[in-house]
Amino acid sequence: MLLTPRARLKSALLASAVSVCLLAASAPAVPLGVGDRLFPYLGNPGYDVASYDLALVYGGANDKPLQAVTTIDAWTTTDLDRINLDFAHGKVESVEVDGATAAFASAGDDLVVTPQKSLPAGSWVRITVRHTSDPVSADGQDGGWVKTADGLAMANQADAAHLVFPCNDHPSDKAMFTIRVTAPDAYTAVANGLPTGVARAGGSTTWTYRTQHPMATELAQVSIGRSTVVHREGPHALPVRDVVPTKDRAALEPWLKKTPAQIAWMEGKVGPYPFETYGLLMADASTGFELETQTLSLFEKDLFTEPAYPKWYVESIMVHELSHQWFGDSVSPRTWSDLWLNEGHATWYEALYAEEKGGGGHTLEARMKAAYGASDRWRASGGPPASPKAPNPGQKISIFRPNVYDGAALVLYALRQEIGRAAFEHLERAWVHNHRDATASTADFERLAQEISGRDLTRFFKDWLYGAKTPTMPGHPDWKQAPPAAKGEPKAVPKVAPPARRSAE
Known about the structure:
Elements: E1 2-3, H1 12-17, E2 47-57, E3 66-76, E4 83-86, E5 92-97, E6 100-101, E7 103-107, E8 110-114, E9 124-133, E10 144-148, E11 151-155, E12 176-184, E13 188-191, E14 194-201, E15 204-210, E16 222-225, E17 227-233, E18 239-245, H2 249-256, H3 259-270, E19 280-283, E20 289-290, E21 297-300, H4 302-305, H5 311-324, E22 331-333, H6 339-357, H7 364-382, H8 406-419, H9 421-434, E23 438-440, H10 442-453, H11 458-466, E24 502-503
Parallel strand pairs: 2-12, 19-21, 20-24, 22-23
Antiparallel strand pairs: 1-20, 2-3, 3-9, 4-8, 5-6, 5-9, 7-8, 10-11, 12-15, 13-16, 14-15, 17-18
């Protein structure tokens, strides 16, 4: 995810939480979580989701609730009298567990389901929830549905998928998705993955999409609008499809056609593209960010039509979201404290692309030197890269601070300086290969770096990832922290590039 210039100021856990899931059926419903340090009530213990089937009916007005049915197939990992789902913004009409009516109640952001019979550990269970999905944000609940000029899109990072559909809303529990959207014939619906069917009846069309790889809930995407889907071919015959407002199709084509070459560039750095398709969703909306929703990255259309943004900058932002398909989507964070692995890598390849393809002297070293000068201030305000401070009250998206963007890319630069370019590039390829379609933690990254480099990097990672102060840069002992801005001077940190937009992602 990347902040726009105007918005820049933007399982061990399961094991520890599972004991609280053994609730007596007569006890009050309570919210649970998997114990994430930054989002303690996200996710739920006691089960592992295998798949979601999400069916949505859009009536043609983006300020009216959608009718929806969410079906969850899961394995229980402990004995359960109740099942907690994350769901906080819609009306629940009924719940079934394995075809039998189940009782339900709300508790905090949880939907607590009580089946007629207890579920022993190792059970295969199907939960069907009939509900509404409200695109109008509730107070203090930003995220989820995004209104566009002609319909809707999704932006669920980091904690907002459960504002759209019932789910286990934590990236540690990835699952397969089938998404069905019914809308009036004048609209086009597109979702993650590949299309598997289109059915028309009575003035409406039902579009069905299915992922071929597991996905975190925060990466789900549904676009409904008066859109055109533009098809082309990427490397190795990869199907590339972009979704654009029909009226802007010709104007956006010069940007759309750049994607295949950008995919090829990323493959040259880290290996094969990890999914079944890719493309850009250029939404006519004002979000303040771009977002790496899996196989279909969300962009504000204005990024491509605003003449103030230099061409090289726009292309580097496209690569930021593309690189997230490897770093963050295919390899997902085990906890939200591992966010630096997503954003640091996406910022790294964004900057490297600008250096290699942008022209004009936008070097990686210059950007990292500028980041080094600001790093102590970023750590003070947002925490060290691998131990970010909790989000501000009412601003859960505020975990996306500079410390996990350029501050985290700075850690990668220091690591390359420390172990050498060849070992670093080997590490990058091995990371996305070894953890493809899975989750991984900061500790996993540290172990792999030590294995590949053949060096004890314990002190290096402790200082660079968790220290309150930025260590001396290997190979650049002359790099210094920039002095604080004088009173009355602007406090913004000078950057080689225009301020980065927020990318989820």
